[in-house]
Design goal:
By secondary structure, the protein is mainly alpha-helical. The longest helix is centred in the first third of the chain and has 18 residues. It is elongated, with a radius of gyration of 23 Å. 20% of the residues are buried. The model has no long low-confidence stretch (mean pLDDT 89).
């Protein structure tokens, strides 16, 4: 009986020791930044993926739903031609404004895409 208990104990300990591992999320794919960034085809999909669950009509400002997001951002959050001074940029990097999205910081390539759009004049194209 004592040997059976020892074997079971060794089995349980070895199963516990080998079953522990840490899952890692796969890295986000790097977004290729085009020469000309389009708000509707390059930037709006980022809001659709990560932001409109909170930033929609009647919820947290600004309203980032398609059709409303450009006007809402240009009102108070974007300084056209100057990403570094834009509240949008500051919130994406979490400096001088609350970090957005709240789920965690975006990849450098997503932030760079938004910054390029702002620095290129923040056109509604």
């Amino acid at each position: 009986m004592k040997k059976i208990f020892q074997y079971l104990l060794m089995l349980v300990v070895s199963l516990m020791a080998t079953s522990c591992y840490y899952d890692e999320l796969p890295p986000e794919p790097v977004i290729q930044i085009p020469d000309s960034v389009s708000y509707s085809t390059d930037v709006q999909p980022l809001w659709d993926q990560s932001c409109i669950s909170c930033h929609k009509a009647g919820a947290t400002a600004p309203d980032l739903t398609a059709g409303n997001s450009y006007a809402a951002l240009m009102a108070n959050y974007v300084v056209a031609g100057n990403a570094a001074n834009s509240l949008l940029h500051k919130s994406l990097i979490g400096q001088g404004a609350p970090l957005m999205p709240t789920a965690g910081i975006w990849s450098d390539s997503k932030i760079a895409l938004v910054d390029k759009w702002i620095n290129d004049g923040a056109l509604n194209n």
